[in-house]
Amino acid sequence: MILFLTIVSGLAWTVVYVEAIRVGFRDKSYAIPAAALGLNFAWEAIHASRSVVTGLSVQGVFNIVWGLADVLIVYTFLRFGRSELPPWVTRKLFIGWALLLGVASFAVQLLFVVEFGWELGARYAAFLQNLLMSGLFIAMFAARGGTRGQSLLIAVAKWLGTLAPTIVFGGYGNPPFILGVGALCSVFDLAYIGLLWRTLSHRVSPGNMEPGGREEVPDLPAS
Predict the structure, then answer these.
(1) pTM, two decimal places
(2) Would you say 217 and 209 are in contact if contact means Cβ atoms under 8 Å apart?
(3) What angle do CA 108, 77, 146 make, to 5 degrees?
(4) Tens-place pLDDT, residues 157-214
């Protein structure tokens, strides 16, 4: 069962990354929130490198695949990310911010390893940055005023890719921390899926566009 759920998680997250690359180039944007992307890339670079040294496992193979995919997602962020920011953010400021974000992400991941060791450090960091990503996807939806640079496939695959390891590491005698954080991820992920589903089913037309080309997000019904 553990191997099956590990494969489910690995395949689901691979779908997230492949779709994020496709959507990023399609919409000339980036499809993973910046802070979460930095932490993910750092996590995968560190733990994939260790897998190569210590011997490949199923999870190690997925770590390598994700790390390679993240290179292209990082490229879409560097290529298109400045357009998401206010005009006063110059190219130099944007690059400086991106470098700072990258250095901070690697530092945080290494601190998790120093504090908790390789095994627990990887788990705790993965679930916490996963929760951060869940919240930032909702913030991205709100900031962009719609579904640009996003897709329902990313949202659903992200939820399933997190739910599987929540079951694995949240049970079998493991600390309740992972189960709790994983459950919170599902709450945010399902909320995000609901937002995308409702917006996409609204069938955006020219009459449903705000000035400037932003999608008009339908109001939530009164309770």
Answers:
(1) 0.87
(2) no
(3) 105
(4) 999 999 999 988 876 656 789 999 999 999 999 999 999 999 998 755 434 444 444 5
How far CA 152 is from CA of 177, 202, 209, in Å, comes to 28, 14, 20
Measured in degrees and rounded to the nearest 5, phi and psi for residue 209 equal: -110, 140
CB atoms within 10 A of CB 17: 24
What does the alpha-carbon distance between residue 45 and residue 74 come to, in Å, rounded to a whole number?
Answer: 13
Domain holding 48, by residue range, is 2-208
Whether 69 maps to a domain, the answer reads yes
Distance (Å, whole) CA 128 – CA 126: 6
Please check whether residue 119 lies inside any domain of the structure.
yes
How far is the C-alpha of 112 from the C-alpha of 109, rounded, in Å? Answer: 5
Stretch (H or E) spanning 111: helix 91-144
The secondary structure of the chain in percent helix, strand, coil, rounded to multiples of 5, reads 80, 0, 20
The domain tally of the chain equals 1
* Residue whose C-alpha is closest to residue 76's, from 37, 111, 130: 37
d(CA 180, CA 184): 6
Give the angle 130-46-135 at the CA atoms, nearest 5°.
15
Contact call for residues 173 and 179 (beta carbons, < 8 A) = no
Q: How many angstroms separate the CA atoms of 170 and 27, rounded?
A: 37
Secondary structure (DSSP) of 68-87? HHHHHHHHHHHHHGGGGS-T
Asked if residues 150 and 140 have their Cβ atoms less than 8 Å apart, the reply is yes
